[in-house]
From TrEMBL:
Pfam family, one: FeS_assembly_P
Limits of the MIP18 family-like domain: 10-82
Name this protein carries in UniProt: Metal-sulfur cluster biosynthetic enzyme
């Protein structure tokens, strides 16, 4: 992977930190919901993620917020299309959260 591509992936992750899970009030990156960000040779972005629970009623809202958070990168031609792929494997659990998210939510590790 080129340095330029890695920089753009890092920028996408930074923008995704602005997407807040409406139920938990923590961003989706620190919650550990983002499994992968890939940018192809045509500058299309594919985000592979999960949700905290199957059947989450806010899935469409979160996907919409993700796409909105990346609009500025699209407007400046840095990325093209954004695809969000929601997967259920591996299943999300609290161990995937960052230390910040665990502290904010009062999750104690044993």
């Amino acid at each position: 992977m080129t340095d330029e591509k890695q920089e753009m992936i890092d920028r996408v992750y930074a923008e995704l930190e602005n997407v807040i899970d409406p139920e938990l009030d923590i961003d989706i990156v620190n919650l550990g919901l983002i499994y992968n960000v890939d940018i192809d040779d045509a500058d299309n972005v594919k985000i592979t993620m999960t949700l905290t629970a199957m059947g989450c009623p806010l899935a469409a809202t979160i996907v919409s917020d993700i796409k909105s958070s990346l609009e500025e990168l699209q407007e400046f031609g840095e990325i093209k299309e954004v695809e969000v792929d929601i997967v259920w494997s591996p299943q999300w659990d609290k161990s995937m959260m960052s230390r910040y998210a665990k502290i904010a939510l009062g999750v104690h590790e044993s």
